[in-house]
Amino acid sequence: MIFKTFPEGTTLEYRCDVTMRADALEYDITIKNSGDACESTMEIDAMTSAGPSGVKGYDSQDGSKATKNSWTVPKGKFTDTCFYAGWKA
Prior knowledge:
Layout: E1 2-5, E2 12-20, E3 24-33, E4 38-45, E5 54-56, E6 60-62, E7 65-73, E8 76-88
Antiparallel strand pairs: 1-2, 2-3, 3-8, 4-7, 5-8, 6-7
């Protein structure tokens, strides 16, 4: 299932592609920025007690959360910043 949001007052587009498998839940996050480069943070909470079984692009894992402390979101309609987090049942 794909979710998109365009936070009011920003030039960012957040896209979250969530895949539920028989034994796993996977989150693929894509951020696009059509405005000036900006600083941001992000945290994913999988709503499960298990920790992530695999992550890409995050700084830390704490319990059921994967956190990106800070990064610069590059400007560009076709420039994506991607993150991945997967949880096994």
